[in-house]
Amino acid sequence: ALRWAAESGDGALLLRLAGALWRFWFHRGAWGEGRDWLDAALAGAPSEAMDMYAIGDFEYGRHVVTDQDDR
C-alpha cells in the first residue's frame, strides 16, 4: 500500500499510511524503514492533507524513529 501510494503520487494517502504505521515499525525494530517512509510521506504530502491529526501522529512517529541509531 505504501509503495502504491508513493508510485501513484497520492501524497495524502502516503502521509496517512506512514503516520499510522510508525508504531508497527517501532515495535518491530524497523526504524530505518519507518524513517524512510516517513520522510517520503512528508516530502510528497500536499499541504491540505496535513491536518492536525496527521501532523501530530506523524511528528511523534518521526521523533521516535529518528531517535534510534540503527544506521
**Quick one: how many beta strands?**
0
Oligomeric state of the chains in view = single chain
Shape verdict: globular
Average the pLDDT over all residues and give the rounded result. Answer: 76
Give the class from helix and strand content and strand pairing.
Answer: mainly alpha
- Poorly predicted tracts of residues: none
Radius of gyration: 11 Å
Q: Number of DSSP helices?
A: 4
Terminal Cα separation, in Å? 25 Å
* Percent in strands: under 5%
Give the % helix: over 70%
Series of secondary-structure elements, N-terminal to C-terminal: HHHH
The largest β sheet comes out as: none
Structure characteristics:
mainly alpha; 76% helix
Question: How would you describe the overall organization of this protein?
Answer:
- The longest helix has 18 residues, at 11-28.
- Helix 3 (31-44) runs antiparallel to helix 4.
- The model has no long low-confidence stretch (mean pLDDT 76).
- This protein has 71 residues and is mostly helical.
- The protein is built from four helices and no strands.
- 76% of the residues lie in helices and 0% in strands.
Short description, anyone?
This protein has helices spanning about 1-10, 10-30, 30-45, 50-65. By secondary structure, the protein is mostly helical. The longest helix has 18 residues, at about 10-30.
